[in-house]
């Protein structure tokens, strides 16, 4: 405890930029500043902030929210500054229970405090994002349909459709086989003329297959596996869940940052995120869930599960440049090369075929029955399905 100890100091009154030079007399819990023109006697508890500096400390008198606060700067040793801060904290802790809690935290070791903060934030974050998952249960399925309908309009203005009687027959029969009986969604499949070997689903039950996937498929069971995967995305409401998660994350960030986003910038940011999520890249967790669910769909209808694994293995090889398909450029339509189509196809690279994913699929397929049904239409119909977009291109060139 300081007893009548004097330090060199200077006082900023909050009005003038020029400080008053003087001395500070510290007696117990009281500080008395004296200069040629000023004499202030202030209790340590009256200062709202204590800041240690390289040559002493600074004590801030008022919250710096409305106007510049008076500041008392004391020149002292590092140990004296620590002792003075300790006295100040003890004074602040005695003011209320909340102050006692806050200033007790301030006294903690910075490393320990950092670790505790990380643990607390992690726990809060875990339950926060778990809560966001629950939120989706209270959103009606009509919202999924509206979300998908809005995207579908944009999608179909950017691509050429290659639907035919053969594709309609194939996918109609496939949907009857794979879609769960208790499904509340209305499913429909369309083929898009594009060399990209991919497929994606919208939240309203609309599923798109790029012709490149059909052209390069080695069997019907591969396409059935991919279809089951896309159906799983819709049944598990991955679009809406990801949208809620993205919106919740944006909200959490804005709360942490504070009002720095501006009056309307948060709404603009949320809208931008929402519009992007409409044609989203699914997270790894959602992809894994879709894989597992799709295998359940196939096994329940005795449909072969080997096709899904076979398809993703070939996609992995293509990505690694080990198995580049020949002649795919002949399938690319002129419209597919347009800027709109290009942007969407680049963005829709939603199914990374990682080695970890392959191992998971292999492990799941080995468990239980694998299914024996590999075909749902005749070989003749299947050949028509694979050649539909090629026939369309030939007819357009005549």
UniProtKB/TrEMBL annotation:
InterPro entries per record: Mito/Outer_Membr_Metalloprot, Peptidase_M48
Example GO BP: proteolysis involved in protein catabolic process
GO cellular component annotations of the record: membrane
Keyword entries, A-Z: Hydrolase, Membrane, Metal-binding, Metalloprotease, Protease, Transmembrane, Transmembrane helix, Zinc
Comment on bound cofactor: Binds 1 zinc ion per subunit.
Single GO MF annotation: metal ion binding
Segments passing through the bilayer: 111-129
All residue ranges annotated as the Peptidase M48 domain in the record: 184-363
Needed co-factor(s): Zn(2+)
One Pfam entry name: Peptidase_M48
Family statement drawn from the similarity comment of this UniProt entry: Belongs to the peptidase M48 family.
UniProt-recorded name of the protein: M48 family metallopeptidase
Organism encoding this protein: Leptospira jelokensis
């Amino acid at each position: 405890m300081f007893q009548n100890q004097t330090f060199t100091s200077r006082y900023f009154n909050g009005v003038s930029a020029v400080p008053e030079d003087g001395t500070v007399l510290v007696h117990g819990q009281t500080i008395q500043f004296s200069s040629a023109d000023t004499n202030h006697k202030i209790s340590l508890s009256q200062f709202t902030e204590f800041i240690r500096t390289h040559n002493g400390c600074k004590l801030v008198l008022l919250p710096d929210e409305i106007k510049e606060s008076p500041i008392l700067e004391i020149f002292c040793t590092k140990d004296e500054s620590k002792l003075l801060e300790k006295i100040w904290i003890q004074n602040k802790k005695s003011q209320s229970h909340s102050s006692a809690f806050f200033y007790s935290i301030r006294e903690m070791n910075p490393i320990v405090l950092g670790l505790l903060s990380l643990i607390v934030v992690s726990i809060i974050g875990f339950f926060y994002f778990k809560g966001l998952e629950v939120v989706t249960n209270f959103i009606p399925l009509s919202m999924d349909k509206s979300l998908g309908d809005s995207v579908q309009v944009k999608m179909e203005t950017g691509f050429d459709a290659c639907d035919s009687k053969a594709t309609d027959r194939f996918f109609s029969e496939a949907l009857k086989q794979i879609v769960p009986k208790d499904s509340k969604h209305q499913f429909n499949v369309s083929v898009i003329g594009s060399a990209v070997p991919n497929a994606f689903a919208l939240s309203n039950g609309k599923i798109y297959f790029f012709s490149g996937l059909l052209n390069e498929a080695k069997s019907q069971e591969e396409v059935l596996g991919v279809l089951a995967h896309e159906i799983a995305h819709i049944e598990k409401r991955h679009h809406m869940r990801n949208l809620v998660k993205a919106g919740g994350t944006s909200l959490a960030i804005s709360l942490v940052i504070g009002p720095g986003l501006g009056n309307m910038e948060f709404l603009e940011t949320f809208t931008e995120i929402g519009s992007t999520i409409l044609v989203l890249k699914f997270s790894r967790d959602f992809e894994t869930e879709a894989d597992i669910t799709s295998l359940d769909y196939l096994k329940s209808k005795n449909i072969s599960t080997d096709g899904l694994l076979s398809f993703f293995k070939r996609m992995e090889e293509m990505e690694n440049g080990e198995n580049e398909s020949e002649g795919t450029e002949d399938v690319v339509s002129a419209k597919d090369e347009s800027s709109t189509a290009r942007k969407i196809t680049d963005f829709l690279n939603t199914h990374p075929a990682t080695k970890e994913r392959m191992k998971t699929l292999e492990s799941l397929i080995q468990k239980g029955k694998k299914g024996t049904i590999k075909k749902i239409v005749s070989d003749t119909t299947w050949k028509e399905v694979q050649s539909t977009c090629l026939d369309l291109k030939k007819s357009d060139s005549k």
